Amino acid sequence: MGIRAELTIGEIHFASWKDDINPFILVLFSESEKQISQQSRPLDADDDLEEGGEGPFYSARYVTTVEELKARLEFFGFTLETTRRVFKIAIEQEIEETRRSIAMHEGRDWSDKDAIKELTKRYREKLEIMLRSEFDEWIEALREAFRSPSWELPSELRTLADCFQPLNQFSYERFPGSLDERFRLRLELEVASGTEVALDYSEFVNDGAYSPSDPITKFALDWLPAEARQFSHIIVLTEGSTDKFYLEAAMKVLRPELIQYVSFLDFDGWNVAGGASLLESMVRSSAAVGIRDRI
Asked: Residue 4: helix, strand or coil by DSSP?
């Protein structure tokens, strides 16, 4: 069956990954947000499992706030305004794809005509929703659906909000198209203020894929392809150690949620000399060897 990791926004399922955790999602969390606890049995064990089993078992999660995750997504370029523009593109693509599907099913002689008729009806309903969907309306409908999750069986959800149900069972309809899922995450975080976001990877620890102490959010930076890493990490070169001291200290105070993505030149640890001429030399040398991080 494989092992899975799951991302949830409050009680709402966002996505799950089998046998491998999406590194683009992992780098949005920090090692300081890791929560590890030992359990007497797996959290998803059957009730008749013998107490104690072959433990120890662990609950392993990264937990952060909606606000901090939004700040990190925006650091990577997934701003609400960018998401708005991507939404418009995705809606247009989805409309065109749905129209092609309708034409394909109506233009052929199928053996099971009733099933095709029902499928075409669903495509037309989807097309109608897409044609009248605007970004702000989509956000409001999501907000309504988040307030009334599927297990409460809401009776007065609007049509658009109703198409997001059940939120805890499927996800692809919650953002049009099949573009980078971080856009959908940024959109859904907009309607979930004050909620925890958790990445549960307990099965990976209990299966032995990772140990409880493995810093997998740091590993994830190395797992990213080169073109993605340059947007995931910044190296800050300063003229001297005093500049470095104040900039680093200010970063820790003003933007602590982003400090893991920024590295400052360590003058003292490596006995590096300062000065403007040396700084120019370091910049040229870094460019010459093709360092993939932003500098």
From this structure: strand
Helices 181-189 and 135-147 cross at an angle (nearest 10°) of 70
- SS3 category, 66: helix
**Whole-angstrom distance, CA of residue 149 vs CA of residue 14:** 13
Return the sign of the alpha-carbon dihedral for residues 27, 29, 30, 31. negative
Residues in the chain: 295
pLDDT in tens, 113-158: 788 888 888 888 888 888 888 999 899 888 888 887 665 555 556 6
Helix, strand or coil for residue 92? helix
Amino acid identity, position 262: V
Listed as own residue / partner, the contacts of 167-170 with beta carbons closer than 8 Å and 24 or more positions apart are: 167/12, 167/13, 168/11, 168/12, 168/13, 169/13
pLDDT tens, position by position, 45-102: 544 444 445 668 999 999 999 999 999 999 999 999 999 999 999 999 989 999 998 8
**281, 254 contact by CB (below 8 A):** no
Torsion angle of the four alpha carbons 63, 64, 69, 70, in this order, in degrees rounded to the nearest 10: 130
Distance CA 134, CA 88 (A): 8
Strands (E), 181-281: 196-200, 234-236, 262-264
Q: What are phi and psi of 216, to 5 degrees?
A: -70, -20
What residues are paired with 249 via a beta bridge? Answer: none
With 0-12 CB in 10 A as exposed, 13-18 as middle and 19+ as buried, what is 13?
middle
In the structure encoding, which two tokens stand for residue 7, read together? 């991302």
Q: What angle do CA 181, 14, 5 make, to 5 degrees?
A: 95
Is residue 208 within 8 Å of residue 55, measured between CB atoms? Answer: no
Amino acid (1-letter code) at residue 177 = G
